[in-house]
Amino acid sequence: MLNRKVLLAEDDSDDREIISEIFRNMEGVAQLTMVENGMEIIKTLESISDSGALPDLIILDQNMPKMTGRQTLEWLKSEGRFAHIPVIIFSTYSDERLIMECTRIGASQVKTKPCSFDEYEQMVNDFIDEINESKKN
């Protein structure tokens, strides 16, 4: 399988550790880079040269300090160089208004954070499916 790049913004250390472990267990599927908030996403992306490899997927926690997932999504979709990158928002709660708003802005998916390790594994598999689907288009 092709090695893909995933950029994750998550301020909760437990969630970062769980997701990191799952990606490590899926060795060779995707390279995961983690930051703690939306401002760090921007800094990370802006540090990639024009010829550098951008991530294949960006995953944003909705409830982060400094910039929420939705605010970061708005920035990403307004920046031509990054607007094509699929973005998934995930949150501890399911809010129909958030789902509609993020979808309108350009999120590929809006997901509720899982409660169990098995559900986290399924969510990460969904992330990989999103990358594979976006590469087909």
Uncertain spans: none
User: How many DSSP H or I helices?
Assistant: 5
CATH superfamily: Response regulator
Give the SSE order as H and E letters.
EHEHEHEHEH
Q: Please name the CATH topology.
A: Rossmann fold
Q: Please give the domain count.
A: 1
The level 1 CATH classification is Alpha Beta
Whole-Å distance between the termini? 18 Å
Count of DSSP E strands? 5
User: What is the overall pLDDT average?
Assistant: 89
What is the alpha-carbon Rg in Å? 14 Å
What profile does the largest beta sheet have? 5 strands, parallel
Strand content: 15-25%
Approximate shape: globular
Structural class, by secondary structure, is: alpha/beta
CATH architecture: 3-Layer(aba) Sandwich
Strand order of the largest sheet: 2-1-3-4-5
Helix content: 40-55%
Topology:
Layout: E1 4-9, H1 13-25, E2 30-35, H2 38-46, E3 57-61, H3 69-78, E4 87-91, H4 96-105, E5 109-112, H5 117-136
Helix pairs in contact: 1-5, 2-3, 3-4
Descriptive account of the structure:
With 137 residues, the chain is of the alpha/beta class. It has one domain: Rossmann fold, CATH 3.40.50.2300. Helices cover 45% and strands 19% of the residues. The chain has a 5-stranded parallel sheet, sandwiched between helices. Helix 3 links the parallel strand 3 (57-61) and strand 4 (87-91). The protein is globular. The two termini are 18 Å apart.
